[in-house]
């Protein structure tokens, strides 16, 4: 699973990168891409030699209802010509003659006067209006039903189309540099026609495709003069000298407003779009899209960065790298915009976000699966409460070992070898599984950790991986519960007929080393140390004393007075030189009967006589107790020792210690 998870995430990330590259190539989500790129337009100071003459509300109130007589336009063109304007873009169409054929009157001469003014100026560009449609596979739109000025005017003035198709979201970001469906001399936008008129022989820096307008700011960024002020000599004509003048409607009622990247809530007049396009070229702030190949590389790269970070690094570090990459890319995109490249703020960040999310989801799924697997494994060894503590604090399962004060319990079945000889392999396995399942449950119920099974033997410990101030008491309680439950199982028919199980339990407390021990590829969470070995020896001593639960003196000190303990002996177990006092756990103090208390009291008194070398008195005391409990092995042992020492006195340094030669 550890390999399959990352591989699955890598394959998904690769597929994601391929889908995003294909989507970008096919032009999906253009509106979103445009919306994000609009944030790059932070504005700049436009060239001072671009002036807008506005057909505004004030001019309409002064001159009269629009459209005006063509003589009014003649007056403006003559004023601009006299002032020395470099070129004029006139966004007012004259598609029909003033008078029908045969009509007479003063106004009928206006068309001829306008044509004469245009001829005299020689630098005025008139508008061409059309409905543009885009066709598949073509970069230039097709003009449908073009509307052009009357022939008298088109004969003396160049044309430029003034309307252009917006992006899919209705925002005007770029202008096609050529259109189809009109003659060659008319297939250019007005801003291009005006620029080439102002600078004869000089072409735009870009002549094909779409011209990205680098907007200088919101509506009103360019110097704007009311139409009426110009024709009524209320402005200094010097402002028009060598200037590019654009004439168009700004009055709201004329409905010539467009939504642009810098004018969304308050759309700007169409004439200002022409001004911004010319300003883009004059200021050298031309823009071009990030090459598709570079964008594709960024998509793949960002997918790889996100996947690698999420799969190989710590979560906090991974998110820092992803966030840092996102931030750096944003800064780089603004820096590129300053040098004329419009970066893609949609697909590369989307790749980073999607790849991060996908690999994060895979990582989360994998970690949850690992946690579930770990929990499942742990629940075989420890109780649910311990598992929850460990899952909340995994640092408690540090690799290696640590020294702790703990308690260990060993249990083993008595005479199980002879019992197993009477059972078939299947019956033997069934008996063991039944027994071990119940006993393990008792270990868990008392917050213990199952270390291992050794055939029919059980090893468990308390005090790790989490702190347990009552580790000794929990171990002793487990031993008592195991003894009681086994009696119930024997009586309740839990085992095949004729099978009665008996156990021996040894409990010891002391310093132990606990942790994950073994090789790098396989290890066990276990305990080691002399205190552990002593616990195993105590379990074996039950056979010598005819007891079921033996604890050491160190355990006795930790459990206090909550149990009825019989002082069994002072022994030096195999492998240890120092003697220890051992005790039988008779029962809990609250559960002890008067007879049990009296027996333990008399046994302790008789043993005191024995340790005081009063072997005759001790033997008689033990004999008296043996009449009551003839089956007690410890009594018989002491009677035999007393008689032995009556025949041959022990050495002078004898302190009652029994040295065990076997385990």
Domains, number: 4
- Proportion in β-strands: 15-25%
Rough shape?
A: rod-shaped
Helix content: 40-55%
Radius of gyration: 50 Å
- Category by helix and strand content: alpha/beta
Separate helix tally: 21
Mean pLDDT: 90
Q: How many β strands by DSSP?
A: 22
Describe this structure in words.
39% of the residues are buried. The protein has 21 helices and 22 strands. The protein folds into 4 domains: 4-37 and 307-375, no CATH class; 45-284, no CATH class; 397-560, Nucleotide cyclase, GGDEF domain (Alpha-Beta Plaits), CATH 3.30.70; 591-663, no CATH class. The longest helix has 32 residues, at 347-378. The protein is rod-shaped and about 160 Å long. The model has no long low-confidence stretch (mean pLDDT 90). The protein has 663 residues and is an alpha/beta fold. The strands form 5 sheets. Strands 14, 15, 16, 17, 18, 19, 20, 21 and 22 form a 9-stranded mixed β-sheet that branches. Strands 1, 2, 3, 4, 5, 8 and 9 form a 7-stranded mixed β-sheet that branches. A two-stranded antiparallel ribbon has the order 6-7.
What keywords describe this structure?
663 residues; alpha/beta; Alpha-Beta Plaits; 4 domains; 7-stranded mixed beta sheet; 21 helices; 45% helix
């Amino acid at each position: 699973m550890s390999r399959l998870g990352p591989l699955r995430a890598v394959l998904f990330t690769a597929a994601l990168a391929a889908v995003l590259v294909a989507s970008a190539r096919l032009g999906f989500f253009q509106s979103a891409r445009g919306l994000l790129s609009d944030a790059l337009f932070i504005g700049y100071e436009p060239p001072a030699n671009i002036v807008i003459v506005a057909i505004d509300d004030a001019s309409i109130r002064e001159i009269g209802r629009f459209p005006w007589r063509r003589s009014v336009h003649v007056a403006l063109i003559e004023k601009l010509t006299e002032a020395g304007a470099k070129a004029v873009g006139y966004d007012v169409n004259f598609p029909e003659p003033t008078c029908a054929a045969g009509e007479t009157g003063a106004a009928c001469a206006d068309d001829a006067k306008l044509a004469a003014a245009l001829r005299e100026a020689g630098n005025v560009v008139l508008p061409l209006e059309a409905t543009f449609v885009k066709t598949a596979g073509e970069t230039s739109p097709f003009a449908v039903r073009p509307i052009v000025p009357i022939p008298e005017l088109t004969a003396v003035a160049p044309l430029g189309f003034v309307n252009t198709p917006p992006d899919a979201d209705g925002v005007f970001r770029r202008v096609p540099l050529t259109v189809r469906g009109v003659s060659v001399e008319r297939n250019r936008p007005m801003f291009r026609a005006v620029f080439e008129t102002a600078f004869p022989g000089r072409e735009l820096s870009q002549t094909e495709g779409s011209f990205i307008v680098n907007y200088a700011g919101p509506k009103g960024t360019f110097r704007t003069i009311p139409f009426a002020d110009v024709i009524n000599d209320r402005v200094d004509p010097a402002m028009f000298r060598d200037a590019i003048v654009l004439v168009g409607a700004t009055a709201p009622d004329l409905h010539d407003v467009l939504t642009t990247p810098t004018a969304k809530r308050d759309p700007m007049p169409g004439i200002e779009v022409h001004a911004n396009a010319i300003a883009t070229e004059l200021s050298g702030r031309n823009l071009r899209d990030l090459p598709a190949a570079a964008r594709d590389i960024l998509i793949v790269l960002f997918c790889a960065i996100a996947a690698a970070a999420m799969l190989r690094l710590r979560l906090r570090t991974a998110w820092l790298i992803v966030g840092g990459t996102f931030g750096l890319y944003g800064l780089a995109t603004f820096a590129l915009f300053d040098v004329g490249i419009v970066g893609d703020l949609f697909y590369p960040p989307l790749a980073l976000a999607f790849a991060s999310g996908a690999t994060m989801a895979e990582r989360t799924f994998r970690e949850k699966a690992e946690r579930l697997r770990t929990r499942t494994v742990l629940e075989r060894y420890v109780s649910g409460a311990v598992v929850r503590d460990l899952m909340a604090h995994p640092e408690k399962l540090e690799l290696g070992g640590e020294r702790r004060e703990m308690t260990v319990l060993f249990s083993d079945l008595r005479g199980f070898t002879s019992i197993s000889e009477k059972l078939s392999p299947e019956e033997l396995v069934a008996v063991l599984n039944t027994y071990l399942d119940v006993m393990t449950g008792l270990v868990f119920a008392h917050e213990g950790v199952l270390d291992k099974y050794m055939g029919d033997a059980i090893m468990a410990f308390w005090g790790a991986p989490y702190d347990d101030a009552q580790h000794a008491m929990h171990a002793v309680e487990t031993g008592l519960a195991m003894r009681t439950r086994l009696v119930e199982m024997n009586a309740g028919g839990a085992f095949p007929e004729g099978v009665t199980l008996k156990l021996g339990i040894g409990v010891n407390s002391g310093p132990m080393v606990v942790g994950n021990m073994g090789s790098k590829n396989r290890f066990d969470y276990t305990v080691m140390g002399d205190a552990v070995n002593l616990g195993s020896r105590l379990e074996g001593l039950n056979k010598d004393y005819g007891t079921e639960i033996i604890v050491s003196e160190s355990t006795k000190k930790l459990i206090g007075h909550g149990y009825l303990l019989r002082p069994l002996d002072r022994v030096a177990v195999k492998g240890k030189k120092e003697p220890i006092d051992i005790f039988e756990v008779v029962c809990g103090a609250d559960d002890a009967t008067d007879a049990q208390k009296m027996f333990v009291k008399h046994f302790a008194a008789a043993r005191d006589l024995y340790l005081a070398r009063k072997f005759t008195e001790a033997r008689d005391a033990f004999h008296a107790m043996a009449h009551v409990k003839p089956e007690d092995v410890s009594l018989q042992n002491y009677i035999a020792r007393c008689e032995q020492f009556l025949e041959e006195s022990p050495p002078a340094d004898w302190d009652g210690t029994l040295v065990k030669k076997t385990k």
